[in-house]
Design brief:
Arc Repressor Mutant, subunit A; three-stranded antiparallel β-sheet; 136 residues
Amino acid sequence: MGVLERLVVGSVAITARAIAAADTELTFIQWRVLLIVGEREEGHAVGEIATRIGANASPASRVVSRLKRRGLLSADKSDLDKRVVYVRLTEEGRDLRTRVLGLRAKDIADVLEIVSLAPGESEALARLAEAFEPFA
C-alpha cells in the first residue's frame, strides 16, 4: 500500500473511530450528510447534498429522511421554488456533529504529535489538502 493510500485509509479509520466513540449508529454516508449540512447555518438543498456524496437525488433524499426521523435534520421547501428542499441540522444534529468532530480532532492531534513537519512539508501537505477539496 502506497503512502497516500495509507494516509487516506488512516483518515477514514479515524473518522469511523470517532463516529463509534460518539456512541451513535451512523453510517459513513449519514455522517457525510451531517458534515455537509453543518457547513452552513442555512443548510443545503438535497440536490447539493446528492452531488457532494456522489448519489442521485432519490438515494440522498432517503438518507436525509432517515436522519430527519432520528431528529438530526430538519427540512423545508424553498420559498422561491417549492421543488427545492433545504436541509438543516437540528440542535441534536449540531451536538452530534460537534461531538464527532471533537473526537476526530483529538485523534488527528495525537497523530500530528508523532510527526514533526518541516516548513516545506507543511506547505506540501496544505497543497495536498487543497487538491482533495473537490471531493470533500
